[in-house]
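User: Fold this; tokens only.

Assistant: Input:
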Amino acid sequence: MSSGAQAGLIGLLPAVSALRAAAEETRLRILVLLREGELSVSDLTDILGQSQPRISRHLKVLVEAGLVARHREGAWAFFRLAEGPASGVLDGLLEAVDCTDPRLAEDRERLAAARARRSDAAQAFFARLAPQWDETRSLHVAEEAVEAAIRDVVGEAPIGSLLDLGTGTGRMLQLLAPRAQRAVGLDGSHAMLSVARASLAREDLHRVELRQGDLHAPPFPRGAFDLVVMHQVLHYLDEPARAIAQAARLLAPGGRLLVVDFAPHGIESLRETQAHRRLGFAHDQMASWFDEAGLDGEVVRDLPPPARSGADRLTVSLWLGRDRSAARHETHREVA
């Protein structure tokens, strides 16, 4: 391999373009802020005290230079530092910038204030939903036990790339993202993503990516993730089999899909009060869906509810499947 083709290197002209894009005061301030996590145009307008058209023009330059990535979330647009060859040029530059500089220190103070406002709004939204969620939680084993089981099933090895489908409040990202090189959460609700964004900020998980999208058609390339998690998502969906097939499509060879949901139950009221579409899933049904999606089931675990007479209760089940394409590849190679 020639030196110019080595991973992580960038050509002369793209390098000059990236450096020129960063070599302007406002754009460099934007880059320093985005190092702390993704921000909207509105966030940057408030923090930097400049007009939206001016901020948008600067962002356009940074996007075109490959330094910043843009994604839509409904009517909103969010920006974060891009991954790719140009990002290598940026890393050394940002490492050298003195963040105690008075202008940059003021920017960070305004960033903290913006995050506090975002957190307050998210908590107000969450408070409206909390009574409903508390009702459901009271019917099954404690969340701490569920999360302990998730950690045990996933194991202690580094995760690589992680995707949380239907991320909701972002709790699974808080639990697993610290062990992942890349972590992404997808949800269809802008309001829930606002809650997740605030929750992750409180845990200093600013490099986690959040995206708005359809779980039945997630906007990611095939084979992009080593672990995909669907935590308490399937029972809300009209087509859970399709969602599992789409999740499996996103797995790298040998990647894993973890589904956490309820075992079959008869609490019909959850259809009305919690918008549940499915009243749990049987192990044989999940095994069939996994097989159709090209997954080999590895782990099935039930967490029964604490005993309480005279009341319907919920069993939480965990199903872990592994993409079998890697195994097929190994078999073909051995035969050859």
